[in-house]
Design a protein that fits this description.
binds copper (II) ion, Immunoglobulin-like, six-stranded mixed sheet, 2 domains, mainly beta
Length: 347
């Protein structure tokens, strides 16, 4: 059976379709290996960008009625058997590839294929379509696979204690001229000029702008992306970059504990306020420790956070990228780029 699904999403409806498909990960260590069965659909359509422009995308989506960019976060443990069934609703062949796990499955136009994923090492992995590299990855066929330690192991990645909660941040950049050339089956332009920069598929919306504070469109409040924690709530963030622009990830409030880059754990965990994130499949993991922010006055305690909340105030610090272009959309709209907020909350 061959059919074609073309979906159009305004930002709000695209984000609604995305809810729960990327970002915050819930995980409870368990004693036994599991068999996990999941289906995803390769779909296409347009997503409206912050400047009102509809841009063409393809995605590994949660249903044939969705367009998920990035794709669903796949979560498993070492020892699990993850049976993934991939339906290709498009009229072109697409691949499902996880380089580090030796997985490369081709799904013909209109066809369905299954792949079994097993992993011997915990960590963060990228899945993507490597056909016409990098075009299908750039046009949206990418996502994150997270592998936790097996059994009841409560450590994560080289004996580090399991953090209180975890997030996946998928950074991406978009040249709409490339996406349109890919849609038409034409050669992509000689130059690549990204005009949109996304974090889990969304962008920041500055106060007063359309969509500001709307979790369906604003990456600064999107629950998959914005971090909330109490003092001491060590929070792990797994960053992947499926775009072509290298990034400099920068957090206010606390320094980040830099755990790994590109799958290589660091022998020494440095505390940094800026950490590089390589382009074209780069990865980086860090812990945001939720220590009292050293620049706060009066000194930050649970009591001062509670008083601020009683006064109707948020205590939040931004994460933004230090490559300034990425903080814009459409060639100039400032603060419509890849950024989010980190909220300190009273216990
Ligand atoms: Cu800053």
């Amino acid at each position: 059976m061959k059919r074609r699904t073309f979906l159009k999403f305004g930002s709000a409806s695209a984000a609604a379709a995305l809810t729960g498909t990327a970002g915050l990960i819930m995980w409870q260590p368990r004693a036994h290996a599991a068999t996990i069965n999941k289906e995803i659909w390769i779909t296409e359509g347009t997503i409206t960008q912050p400047d009102g422009v509809d841009v063409y995308f393809r995605g590994f989506s949660g249903s044939d009625a969705n367009l998920d960019v990035p794709g669903q976060v796949l979560v498993m443990a070492v020892g699990d058997t993850y049976n993934l069934t991939i339906h290709n609703t498009l009229n072109s062949t697409h691949n499902f590839v996880v380089d580090a796990l030796g997985i490369n499955t081709s799904v013909p136009a209109g066809g369905t294929r299954s792949v079994t994923i097993t992993a011997s090492d915990p960590g963060t992995y990228i899945y993507y379509d490597n056909r016409d590299l990098p075009n299908n990855r750039l046009v949206g066929l990418h996502g994150a696979l997270v592998v936790f330690p097996n059994g009841a192991d409560t450590s994560i990645e080289a004996g580090r204690d399991m953090p209180v909660r975890e997030f996946v941040w998928v950074f991406h950049d978009i040249d709409p001229a490339w996406n349109d050339a890919i849609r038409r089956g034409n050669n992509t332009p000689n130059s690549y000029v990204p005009r949109y920069f996304t974090l889990n598929g969304l962008n920041g919306r500055p106060p007063g702008a359309p969509g500001a504070h709307d979790p369906a469109v604003d990456s600064m409040v999107d629950p998959r992306t914005a971090i909330h924690g109490h003092l001491g709530d060590r929070t792990m963030v797994r960053c992947i970059n499926t775009g072509r622009a290298q990034h400099a990830v920068h957090c206010h409030g606390n320094h980040m504990e830099w755990l790994s880059s590109n799958g290589q754990q660091r022998d020494d965990v440095w505390k940094k306020d800026i950490i590089p994130l390589d382009a074209n499949g780069g990865m980086m993991e860090f812990i945001f420790p939720f220590e009292p922010a050293p620049d706060a006055w009066p000194p930050m305690t649970n009591a001062t956070l509670a008083q601020a909340e009683a006064d109707g105030l948020h205590t939040a610090y931004p994460m933004h990228l230090h490559d300034e272009m990425t903080q814009t959309a459409g060639g100039g709209l400032y603060m419509f780029g890849a950024l989010t907020d980190i909220y300190f909350e009273a216990k």
